[in-house]
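A quick word before the example. In earlier lectures we treated sequence and structure as two separate objects. From today on, think of them as two lines of the same record. Here is Ran guanine nucleotide release factor written that way.
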Amino acid sequence: MSTQELFGGAITVPVFNSFVDASPTHLNDSQFRQIPDNQEVFVDMNTQQSLIFELLEQVEATNEQVAEYHFQQLADDNEAAESTIILIDNLKPQDISPLLPQDGTEIYVLQGSQKISKFNENNAFNTVEIVLVVVRLTKVATDFVISVNAPVKLASTSSEQESVNETSAVTIDTVKAEMMAILKGLQVKDWDLFG
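And the structure line, produced from the sequence above:
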């Protein structure tokens, strides 16, 4: 794992070395969508997993509904044909993210799946396992959403058939372990990022 600086170094997180920065300055930008300023995106070119960090205004939802809301937004953004929530859990910041302020931090984790097509390929819906975490930073009214998307079943006509290395298939347990490692090292270095 290596420490990655997000949002100009205001936030640091450990990221597995198999993930590379998906910004146009690091990769051929024709392969990826435009990345908005409130997001940082990494991809694993062997497994086609994506790791997305997103700063969002705190939503009105409370407790586990926060994770449900952001998962549904992700499903809408992905134009998912189906989306299923498998579990939602509320984690204790002191156990999971010791480098974050314990007062005013809430952490929700959601495991789910979506059927989505890459590059809007009609009828080529891949099953993607998703682990989504919402780190609610109440003192700055921000939902910091971290999601790992891992394709687990590819449509026979999907363009990803050629790019996913079958020997690198991931399990949901692997994805959850990746997310827990990220949360353990998550640190806000510059609170001015939040205005």
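Notice the following. The mean pLDDT is 86. We will return to this example when we discuss secondary structure assignment.
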